């Protein structure tokens, strides 16, 4: 039972004064505060006191600590203790940041209690936020980083691309990264022996491909197409007049002949699918046709197993990056193919076999011989690939050992400077140059040019396994230990910028500014952020940040029930993801308001996705911007098939999963996880209740469930007009859809439009959530209450600029958490 208790002399107002005193005691005293400023601050404290006394103390007092929150005694005791010892073990700001978050989202007080009006809400949110911000300014604290962060697999791949000019898929070379806080760049870890071996192997492969010496060692690549990829239509990026197939971007280490082999899909009787008439199959290199097979059905009584066994051809290919395409020549009758039902290719394998042949696998093996008969084991490549141009910026003036050593030092020094994200020392180059020297001094019948290139290859591999490359390293900075935070160096600022905006390494311009100690100049820094956002490498914010924030990577794991959703296939999976990526890309490239992610009158569609959404007039596999009609029920993120699919089960929607996703990723105030002893929602086969709403109502009869579900479910039900694959519907089976509910602020909603309107009415919630997610990604660590003042400052400044995405990104880069680090951080790497 709740008790209304009068506040003692040590009131909440006194508590706040003590907090301020406790937090400022350990730092140099400020100049005297003018009376007007002090009076204003005291007035704000009194208003906070009155609000808490009226709306919070009934449940959060010494006698009744609902949710283990005592705003009367516990917090006051902590502040008194902090004042006495000057070293609080529990920062009271953590509690009050939680209180502020709950009040700002209108989750508290609960709907069945006395609640303030909107003007009171806005006033106390502003006053409490300003008070916390003032305390933070007096005692700046940044959460410590206690471990090294290893490059993610994406960062490693991008770094190799930008360092060496190599486009490689290294997903099979390195293990998948674990995620924390929704992002995989918040990694910790030692380098185990097995993982180090993976990095050594990757470094050897990369350095060999980059240098491109002739070794005549065949390498293989197999590309298997998803079983449910429909191949009846034109594939984007392939020539017009073709259908199906695939395009493979691959970097060839050497010039020579490569064998390309193709396998076709088969039905459950191991017969080639759809081969009822002859079909032409083309092989193209960089969009130029190199070979054509005519595939004919076997004669009566003949086995067809040898048909694709003979689909092999050897093609001369030069070293460097190339696009290898294998695709069928389109036949006019194939236009009828798209009308067959069901659409799903995987489902068709068992009930409706394909009416045309399709690719199952493409393999590339080689080189088997040099295209240039004069090329020998000891010759240098005649083709200067982008990676060789990037590496060999110097060449020995003669075959003498000193000249080769000078050239090697220049080559590896330039590479190491970018790889290590700073100027290098002789100690940094000692190991790579030792590998070079070992090769140059060794006995060999090869030419000196070949030995020199082998030495560079070995030295490059040594750089690629150096901890200064594999880890985000921030060197110790000399500073007074009494300072709570220290500014990072310009080198470290360049590294943080590149990791945030490019998921890669700093380029020469960033490194040159860092070397001159100019990067941290605010005007210079803003200009560099603008430049980096206009660079194509900022696409990593879409591929690496947005894909994790919005759960787009989870699309690969959804498995809709094929009997309920027979139209689902790989084409639809990819199209749904692409729609969301393109909307975020639009906001990024046009520097638009991020509120356009919530409410948009256009989207991006191709024919496959438009058919799924029942939107007419969109033909072809290419995505294009489509202006939306209200009758189509499409718009911002909450109406995207990608979001709606990853927040559903395989057989049905889940208001709880969807509501929780919105709270966590849009509003930024996720509820705590359910207690371990709470039973799961029972399916309707075990209940008399027929609708999902009725079953959830029964679930909420458990008092432990009600508090969270009252918050989550109304948001999820607002999206219930969209099924488990995001198709709009009016009925769930025989039950009419009921999307009504009451939001935490008391707003009644009848569907997604009302939910979007509520978010637009309180833009600071979504912008604050996005800023928090983006700051987490930018810092490579979880943010907490100590970062909250910086996030509020970012939102305030972004509001002036209509919440443009660049204002949020610029705010993060200019923030104290981004440009400073805690002196509590553990010692980082100093030996290499």
Automatic annotation (TrEMBL):
Residues 1-25 form the signal peptide. InterPro entries: DUF1585, DUF1587, DUF1588, DUF1592, DUF1595. Keywords: Signal. Residues 745-818 form the DUF1585 domain. Residues 408-474 form the DUF1595 domain. Residues 149-211 form the DUF1587 domain. Residues 488-615 form the DUF1592 domain. It holds the Pfam family PSCyt3. Residues 634-731 form the DUF1588 domain. This is Planctomycete cytochrome C.
């Amino acid at each position: 039972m709740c008790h209304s208790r009068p506040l003692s002399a040590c009131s909440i107002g006194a508590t706040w004064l003590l907090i301020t005193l406790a937090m400022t005691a350990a730092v140099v005293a400020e100049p005297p505060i003018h009376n007007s400023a002090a009076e204003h601050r005291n007035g704000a404290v009194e208003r906070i006191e009155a609000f808490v006394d009226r709306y919070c103390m009934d449940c959060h007092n010494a006698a009744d600590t609902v949710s283990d929150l005592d705003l009367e005694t516990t917090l006051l005791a902590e502040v008194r203790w902090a004042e006495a010892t000057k070293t609080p073990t529990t920062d009271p700001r953590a509690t009050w940041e939680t209180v502020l978050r709950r009040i700002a989202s209108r989750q508290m007080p609960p709907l069945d209690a006395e609640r303030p009006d909107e003007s009171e809400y806005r006033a106390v949110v502003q006053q409490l936020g300003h008070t916390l911000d003032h305390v933070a300014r007096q005692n700046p604290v940044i959460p410590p980083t206690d471990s090294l962060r290893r490059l993610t697999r994406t960062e490693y791949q991008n770094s190799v691309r930008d360092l060496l000019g190599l486009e490689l898929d290294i997903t099979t070379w390195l293990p998948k990264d674990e995620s924390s806080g929704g992002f995989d760049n918040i990694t910790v870890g030692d380098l185990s022996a097995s993982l180090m071996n993976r990095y050594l192997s990757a470094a050897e492969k990369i350095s060999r491909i980059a240098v491109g010496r002739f070794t005549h060692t065949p390498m293989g690549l197999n590309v298997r197409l998803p079983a449910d990829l429909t191949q009846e239509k034109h594939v984007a990026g392939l020539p017009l007049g073709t259908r199906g197939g695939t395009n493979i971007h691959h970097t060839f280490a050497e010039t020579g002949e490569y064998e390309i082999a193709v396998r076709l899909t088969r039905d459950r009787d191991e017969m080639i699918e759809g081969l009822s008439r002859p079909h032409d199959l083309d092989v193209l290199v960089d969009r130029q046709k190199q070979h054509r097979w005519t595939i004919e059905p076997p004669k009566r009584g003949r086995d067809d197993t040898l048909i694709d066994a003979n689909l092999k051809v050897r093609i001369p290919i030069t070293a460097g990056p190339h696009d290898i395409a294998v695709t069928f020549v389109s036949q006019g009758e194939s236009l009828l193919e798209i009308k067959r039902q069901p659409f799903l290719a995987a489902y068709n394998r068992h009930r409706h076999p394909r009416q045309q042949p399709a690719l199952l696998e493409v393999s590339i093996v080689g080189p088997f011989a040099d295209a240039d008969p004069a090329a020998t084991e000891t010759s240098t490549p005649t083709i200067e690939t982008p990676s060789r141009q990037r590496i060999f910026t110097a060449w020995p003036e003669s075959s003498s050992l000193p000249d080769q050593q000078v050239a090697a030092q220049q080559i590896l020094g330039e590479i190491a400077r970018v790889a290590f994200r700073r100027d290098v020392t002789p100690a940094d180059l000692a190991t790579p140059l030792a590998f070079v020297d070992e090769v140059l001094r060794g006995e060999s019948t090869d030419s000196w040019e070949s030995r020199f290139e082998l030495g560079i290859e070995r030295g490059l591999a040594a750089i690629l396994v150096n901890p200064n490359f594999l880890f985000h390293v921030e060197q110790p900075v000399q500073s007074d230990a009494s300072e709570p935070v220290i500014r990072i160096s310009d080198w470290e600022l360049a590294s943080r910028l590149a990791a945030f905006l490019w998921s890669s390494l700093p380029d020469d311009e960033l490194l040159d500014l860092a070397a001159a100690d100019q990067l941290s100049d605010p005007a210079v820094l803003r200009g560099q952020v603008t430049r980096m956002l206009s660079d194509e490498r900022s696409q990593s914010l879409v591929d690496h940040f947005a894909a994790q924030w919005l759960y787009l990577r989870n699309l690969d794991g959804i498995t809709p029930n094929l009997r309920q959703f027979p139209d689902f296939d790989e084409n639809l999976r990819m199209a749904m993801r692409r729609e969301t990526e393109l909307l975020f890309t639009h906001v990024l490239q046009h520097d638009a308001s991020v509120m356009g992610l919530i409410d948009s009158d256009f989207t991006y569609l191709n024919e496959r996705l438009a058919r799924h959404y029942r939107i007419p007039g969109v033909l072809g596999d290419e995505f294009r911007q489509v202006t939306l009609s209200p009758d189509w029920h499409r718009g911002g993120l909450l109406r995207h098939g990608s979001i709606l699919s990853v927040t559903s089960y395989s057989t049905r929607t889940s208001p709880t999963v969807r509501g929780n996703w919105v709270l966590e990723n849009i509003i930024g105030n996720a509820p705590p996880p359910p207690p371990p002893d709470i039973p799961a929602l029972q399916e309707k086969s075990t209940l008399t209740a027929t609708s999902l709403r009725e079953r959830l109502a029964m679930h909420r009869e458990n008092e432990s469930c009600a508090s969270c579900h009252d918050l989550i479910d109304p948001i999820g039900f607002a999206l219930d007009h969209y099924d488990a694959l995001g198709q709009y519907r009016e009925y769930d089976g025989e039950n009419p859809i009921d999307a009504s509910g009451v939001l935490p602020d008391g707003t009644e909603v009848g569907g997604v439009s009302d939910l979007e309107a509520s978010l637009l009415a309180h833009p600071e919630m979504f912008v604050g959530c996005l800023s928090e997610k983006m700051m987490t990604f930018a810092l490579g660590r979880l943010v907490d209450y100590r970062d909250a003042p910086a996030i509020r400052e970012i939102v305030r400044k972004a509001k002036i600029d209509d919440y443009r995405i660049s204002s949020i990104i610029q705010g993060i880069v200019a923030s104290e958490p981004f440009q400073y680090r805690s002196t509590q951080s553990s010692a980082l790497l100093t030996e290499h």
